[in-house]
């Protein structure tokens, strides 16, 4: 008889912070104390609160232990699991309210979240099809195959208002409806799991935490459009995800939930995994299909759209993982339920990967229309170190920044687009006052220069020129004309590039120019980097009042740029200084500043 | 991005060749499996020298120029060998704003090699990667399969020391 369940996160974040060792230690300790039959250890998908990893949760009490160490395991086992005394010291402190233990769902991080796509992540064992079935798994598929016609399925998805979660936000139902009527000997369903946007990892989380959900949704899509074959294109950088998905596909075959004549309906469907090999452009749908065909992943001009001529020249529906993850719930709970969440034109929830300068980094799923302030200050717990919020970046290399004075913006597709940002796949990187916006724009351009596939000139050459201009500005050699030319070139690249990568590549520059033009001007006119990031524009100074004349800085300076006698304020010769920062590290009195 | 092509002579063994031929045999009638074969080949040899690309081209009946085209397009394929320990620093956005650029530079300085290079003794190689998805632990680096997170520049020396026995 199992009286207690211990759920340990086995997502990539926690695995990287050694959760496999925790599971090992836990199992050993349980047998040592003779209660291995009474306590079940389950390795789940991601809980979302990656910053506190490795994390585990003990049921029935619902105690949330964070940053667990192997050394803590004997105590947790002997105190909590054997004697029933919770080890308060090791709990996530936000769940401890005086002597009371709060549910995790009442903490700031989880309170405002609504989990649809991530509903099973961190709850079930992703390697067990039985657990998925116990949580209503494959019921939506059964309902579709036995009660609905393909047209009805498409109608439900259309009515729900679900839009593509991978970037552009194209209505999913319409995409399916465009593909369904096209006659062809073979049609395909493709899942884009090539989550290339740096800083976003929600798709991986679904693949790792709830792989059956994807299989079910793709099968439903296959039924709706009349496709019998599906491909999941996964990044090779996600080994755990690939392993679990393959395991799930094998289990589904075993249970007759993939293969021939599903639910005796006469409908066949099969899935295959294809591994990507690290190319950002393969997130673009036509490039992804070219890659599955075994070629360089270059996009092709549209039309013809994939709905007509997609993978191997056949009609194809392509959606990303998070989009698919919403489908089974929409079928089970109905279009109205889904459409009741969110804003007028953006329905449902969206998963964001919170990262950067924020206390609670991790995955959050919130209704569309939640304000940026709620995400950053309440769910994210604010900026660490008492620093000020400067901007949030969404949409990765294709997106833009939302500055601090627009922090009350309601996050949905249209509001973001109006700000020159985009939803993208949902990476949300928080930046504080120590982040230089010109440098960030340069960072993203370096990325797109690297990742441009080279097929069309505006993107291949244009992004490079943009990068060079930014390099010129951050090194202190820019002119005001450069800023104007930058803007002109951005617009040219946007209008003339072949695919989404090029068309959105200038966004980080345009958006920072729009909201932080004064920073560009400071770099150009005053030759200063206000955030203190761009090395060539920095100078180190000693504040005479604070300097005690201890000589520590002068001794550590590798080029002898610091002079001054003992117990007298020292001075840095800026013409000799190589800006290595060694003096600043050494100074105990905080007398050295860069500006 | 321009790929570095190794000038080190190819030292494949008969056993490796056997393994590769087996992989080719399994997929040779499906040209869309080219990348799968190349991925397995890279697992076998550690990288994709011309000799291996030629074997794949012959076995799959695909022109060598296409194999080379695919090899140079995707960042995962390497045309030069990796060190015994491949150090990879994440330069994704979340890691970058938390200072992974400095960490990369320190390692590069310490090992005396740049991105995609290998130390002369073949011990270490260095790569910059784009997000391994462990953004909650940013900044992150990996040495082969070991992941190190929540780093600062001073941690670098200690981590490298673990592997330089």
Describe what you observe in this structure.
The complex is a heterodimer of chains A (595) and B (165). The model of chain A has no long low-confidence stretch (mean pLDDT 93). With 595 residues, chain A is an alpha/beta fold. In chain A, strand 14 and strand 15 form a beta hairpin. In chain A, the strands form six sheets. A five-stranded mixed sheet of chain A has the order 9-10-8-7-11. Chain A has a five-stranded mixed sheet with strand order 13-12-16-14-15. Chain B is an alpha+beta fold and 165 residues long. Chain B contains seven helices and five strands, in the order ααααβααββββα. Chain B has helices at residues 14-27, 34-45, 50-60, 64-73, 93-97, 100-111, 155-163; strands spanning 85-90, 117-118, 124-129, 141-143, 146-148. The interface between A and B is large, with 53 and 37 residues.
SSE map:
The complex is a heterodimer of chains A (595) and B (165).
Chain A: E1 4-9, H1 12-16, H2 19-32, E2 39-44, E3 56-59, E4 63-65, H3 73-82, E5 96-97, E6 100-101, H4 108-111, H5 129-134, H6 139-147, H7 150-160, H8 172-179, E7 188-193, H9 202-209, H10 211-225, E8 229-234, H11 239-254, E9 259-262, E10 267-275, H12 285-292, E11 316-320, H13 321-333, H14 335-339, E12 349-356, E13 362-367, H15 372-379, E14 389-394, E15 400-403, H16 413-418, E16 427-432, H17 437-451, H18 457-474, H19 480-496, H20 500-504, H21 507-524, E17 540-542, H22 552-556, E18 562-563, E19 571-572, H23 582-586, E20 592-594
Parallel strand pairs in A: 1-2, 7-8, 7-11, 8-10, 12-16
Antiparallel strand pairs in A: 1-3, 3-4, 5-6, 9-10, 12-13, 14-15, 14-16, 17-20, 18-19
Chain B: H1 14-27, H2 34-45, H3 50-60, H4 64-73, E1 85-90, H5 93-97, H6 100-111, E2 117-118, E3 124-129, E4 141-143, E5 146-148, H7 155-163
